[in-house]
Amino acid sequence: MTFDVDDHGAIRRRREVLRRFLAAGGGMIDSSPMYGRGEWLLEQLPPGLPHAERLFAATRIWTLFDAHGPRRLEARFFLKRITAHPAVTRAIPATSNPEHMDENMGSGLGRLPDVAMRRRMRDYFSRL
Fold first, then answer.
1. What confidence score (pLDDT) does residue 68 get?
2. Is there a smaller number of Cβ atoms within 10 Å at the N or the C end of the chain?
3. Is the pLDDT reported for residue 49 higher than 70?
4. 62, 32 Cβ separation under 8 angstroms
5. Packing angle of the helix pair 76-84, 115-127 (nearest 10 deg)
6. What burial class does residue 107 get, using C-beta atoms within 10 Å of its C-beta: 0-12 exposed, 13-18 middle, 19+ buried?
7. Are 93 and 104 in contact (CB under 8 A)?
8. What pLDDT, on a 0 to 100 scale, did the predictor assign at position 91?
């Protein structure tokens, strides 16, 4: 989720993103002072949301940052392939769009692809 907003309409959308995140079983929010007002907003959004008591926020501090920024991988297909790799312990996609949150959380449903399926998915990516 991306929370660095001050527009009231955008704040309402972030609350909806958080509601869907919690409703889909999410609970861990990765935060950082580098996200602008994100940590402040994260304190404002949860009151009154179902499952808000499950929310856990971890603040991350970093000093190096790729000039191109992290790539957002939102589609279930991409996240499913990434999280299925044995070396991956977590995927942290960011979004400010409630529909994208549904996609992100949906990647955790169902079986993860095995080695053969991950190869087919990789081949598919290479043809894009």
1. 37
2. C
3. yes
4. yes
5. 130
6. buried
7. yes
8. 74
Place of tokens 């856990």: 56
**Average pLDDT over every residue of 42-59:** 81
Quick check: 52 and 46 in contact, CB under 8 A? yes
Tell me the H-state helices in 45-91. 76-84
Tell me the residue ranges of DSSP E strands in the chain. 28-31, 56-59
User: CA dist 24 to 92, 103, 122, 127, Å?
Assistant: 15, 10, 27, 32
- Token readout for 33 is 């002072």
Distance CA 39, CA 74 (A): 22
Give the predicted TM-score (pTM) of the model. 0.51
Distance CA 17, CA 94 (A): 11
Contact 41, 2 (CB under 8 A): no
Residues 6 or more apart in contact with residue 79 via CB below 8 angstroms:
73, 91, 93, 103, 104, 107
What is the rounded distance in angstroms from the CA atom of residue 40 to the CA atom of residue 55? 15
- Residue 38 phi/psi, 5° resolution? -55, -45
